[in-house]
Amino acid sequence: MTGVRYDLRFPFIVAALLVVGLMTVSTAALAPRVSPGIFSKQLLGVGLSILPIGLLWWAGRDRIYRAAPWVYGFSLLLQLSTFVIGKDVNGQQNWIVIGPLQFQPLELLKLSLIMMLPTVMKDGYRGLRSYVPPLAVFLPAVGLVVTQDFGGAMVLSVMFLAMLLVYRMPTWHVLLALLAIGVAFPTVLFPHLKPYQQSRLTIFVDPYKDARGAGYQVIQSTIAVGSGGMMGKGYKKGTQSHNGFVPEAHTDFAFATWAEEQGLVGGVAVLLLYGGLIWGLAGMASGSPRLQDQILFAGVLGQVGFQAIENIGAALSMLPLTGITLPLISYGLSSLVMTLTTLALAYVVYRDRFDKMI
């Protein structure tokens, strides 16, 4: 991508994943206990995303970075407000409900961190004190999220780690951080999780030990994926999802819904699309001369890449079930709008990567 101002491959891949998402949501709407109006809301999400994308396109790279502190501060206040006015949705009181619409402030918080962290990390690692500004930005955000949404906190943490890797920190610091996480999670964090959270994180190892309980969702998901065979059952012809066997067929297990109807070929196609998206973001990073922009691309890559890998891995019983949505495919108004906005942010910054070089 080096030297190219507009690379049409990136928006094409995004559009292709959007089509997959709309097809998946439309067929998941046929399942029992799923609102038939979710397809219309998903289309509404595509329409609503035009406004922030247009704003980013007009603003350009420099205005985006100048606005970062304001967006970050607002997102923190919005996330904090969920402790007071947040509504319980699927057992998590971290949603703001306005009439028929639901908004999850976490999605805006992800975007704000991707904007804010590069502004305090643009000079690169210059000693231990260099960690103070990024930690001062990251810790308040993850602290507000971790008690309400452990999966969301995981996404924020992976984003931050991806940015730190581009921050040019010493390799031994990376290894030390990974060691600390490896020790702290099973000994400090895991024992303090709620029982249902603990079971969701471990049941993928052997879901059949609690086939009617914690393992039910994963088992049904793998059955749906396997029943799709090579070519799938056909669009809107899935039986596992339409008969209600696959829980959350439009969100957590959207990949299982897609794979049942489109088979191994369709599943591999989705993996290739995500691979192309990640490759494109990596190309943007390598083709940008400024460290600040490279850190931003790393944050976007960390978010989208981790969510895709975690969601698909959970659907295949290869990774823990954390409730993380599949970017651009899972149903969710706030998730879709913010994901499209985040990808547009990366595209605009890449567009302006050579502008106003000092």
TrEMBL record:
What topology does it adopt in the membrane? Multi-pass membrane protein
Q: Which residues form a coiled coil?
A: none
UniProt keywords, alphabetically:
Cell shape, Membrane, Transmembrane, Transmembrane helix
User: Which Gene Ontology molecular-function terms are recorded?
Assistant: lipid-linked peptidoglycan transporter activity
Q: What is the lineage of its organism?
A: Bacteria, Thermotogati, Deinococcota, Deinococci, Deinococcales
Q: Where are the transmembrane segments?
A: 12-31, 43-61, 67-85, 137-167, 174-193, 263-283, 295-316, 328-350
Q: Which InterPro entries match?
A: FtsW/RodA
GO CC annotation: cell division site; plasma membrane
Cellular localisation: Membrane
Task: Give the species.
Answer: Deinococcus aquiradiocola
Full protein name: Rod shape-determining protein RodA
